[in-house]
Amino acid sequence: EDLKELIRTEIWPWIRNCESQHAQCAAFAAAAVPTRLIDVGLDGDEMVKMIETDQKALEYIALSYCWGKGTGNSKARTTSKNIQSRLNGILIKDLPATIQDAITITRLMGVRYIWIDAICIVQADGPNDPGDWATEAGRMGDYYSGSLCCIAASCAKGSTEGFLRARPLGRFKIKPIPSDQPKDMEKELVRHHILSLSKREALGEAWCELVRDYSNMKLSFASDRMVAISGVATLLSRKHDDDYFYGAFRSSLAECLLWWSSQDPNTEYPGWSWLSV
């Protein structure tokens, strides 16, 4: 009941306000419709099913979550072997907890469809069965930006943990700000105003920070590093009218070249690109 009330009084007003007031958000309208979606059905249904959209525009929610280590997310993966059965139906209880929670939220919001990468993208199943990950991953930026909203399961370290849980209660110390840091803090507080002064410089700075954080992350599959970030890059390239190639934007090429690594480069990518290590 608390969750229903939260959706009614907080989440839907946020979404409607964004739709009516945020012109910049509207500018990110999706250029690509998801190839597949999950029909969550009605509350109480024990099954959901994957559908092929045939490029018809449908209102949907997207899930952003961490797959986690090991085989925890293996039951969620769609492959060429199980895709046909998934078009007929998927037992909810067979899916990881995080995905079950996302289905619950989608139903409570009264939305019929949700996009989840592991299910809606046909995953590779061996070297001779690549699925359609390479094609679909490049469109993920459009899929997320075109969703009604995105559920970010940031509190779950893996797909088996779930995110609908009681809030932890505890005591927290309030730390004073050191006297030598107020200027840095002020810069961070007004950062969004600074960024509006030069969009190209903003893109370069933000991209370099993103690359720094992204390159330190451990992906479920290291081979996905290039294709996984290309969706975001494509979206930014279109938004800022900037050329993107091998992990760098033309407008910030100098900044993107200021790096070094003690590792031997991967010859699959140019040696000047951070993707080569």
UniProtKB/TrEMBL annotation:
Residues 60-184 form the Heterokaryon incompatibility domain. InterPro entries: HET (IPR010730). It holds the Pfam family HET. It comes from the Eukaryota. PANTHER family: DOMAIN PROTEIN, PUTATIVE-RELATED (PTHR33112), HETEROKARYON INCOMPATIBILITY DOMAIN-CONTAINING PROTEIN (PTHR33112:SF16). This is Heterokaryon incompatibility domain-containing protein.
